[in-house]
Design goal:
single chain; alpha+beta; three-stranded antiparallel beta sheet; 9 helices; four-stranded antiparallel beta sheet; rbstp2171
């Protein structure tokens, strides 16, 4: 005899930030939560990212169109987590006045993106444009330097390469994936500082889940402003 089915999971609607696609999702179940907890216990960032992506795929009732950017993943997981284990999260924050650690309850179901989605086409000269794209976690997982490098400059260069889709002239389009990494680096290094800043600005302002608020210090009573940015800040 088959065991009875326990729950008929409710469905909720949200939007994929990068595309605006409306999707339905369900809360995660014990089997998905178990995989998340195991990944957290390993303290391996890559394992946790894979578990989060697997959870989104398992909980999405609607087929998601296209690849998910890093901020798509962070936003969708935050929405799923809010409907699964609670719409608030306890976050530890230090008072700027006395340094006392405070536990602050934040509403994770009201997160927004830290910045607007930018135009992908960046003019380098009058004849040359670079088409940019927002990175996916799969691209992060496939680039060891983005996870292991302790050099900001090296990490920035690697992230720029990941975010470059193509180079366009008036006559041709050069797909970055078809070019050697050495050629791409040579192209970047031939830029002026002003041209490089245009590319770097796109990369350093990649949207992230974000929330601002205030809390009153339990130690000295000071009113503190806070900014949470990125999924790590919320959980």
């Amino acid at each position: 005899m088959a065991l009875p089915k326990l729950n008929s999971s409710p469905s909720y609607e949200t939007v994929v930030p990068s595309t605006g696609q409306k999707i339905l999702f369900r809360p995660f179940l014990v089997k998905e939560q178990k995989n998340l907890l195991i990944a957290m216990e390993t303290q391996d960032r890559k394992d946790l990212v894979r578990a989060i992506i697997d959870t989104i795929q398992a909980c999405s009732i609607t087929d998601i169109e296209g690849e998910l950017t890093t901020f798509d993943v962070d936003y969708l997981f935050t929405m799923i987590r809010a409907k699964s284990v609670g719409e608030s999260s306890d976050v530890s924050m230090s008072c700027t006045e006395c340094g006392t650690d405070n536990t602050v309850k934040v509403q994770i179901d009201t997160v927004e993106l830290s910045s607007d989605i930018k135009d992908a086409f960046i003019p380098i000269t009058e004849q040359i444009k670079v088409k940019m794209k927002y990175p996916t976690y799969e691209e992060f997982l496939g680039n060891e330097k983005l996870f292991s490098s302790t050099s900001f400059t090296e990490s920035l260069l690697e992230l720029i390469i990941v975010c470059m889709d193509s180079i366009l002239t008036e006559e041709e389009r050069f797909s970055i994936k078809d070019e050697s990494k050495e050629e791409v680096i040579n192209f970047i290094e031939s830029m002026t500082s002003e041209q490089f800043e245009k590319i770097a600005e796109f990369v350093t302002d990649i949207p992230a889940v974000s929330q601002t608020g205030k809390f009153k210090c339990s130690g000295c009573g000071k009113e503190n402003d806070y900014i949470l940015k990125g999924m790590d800040d919320f959980f």
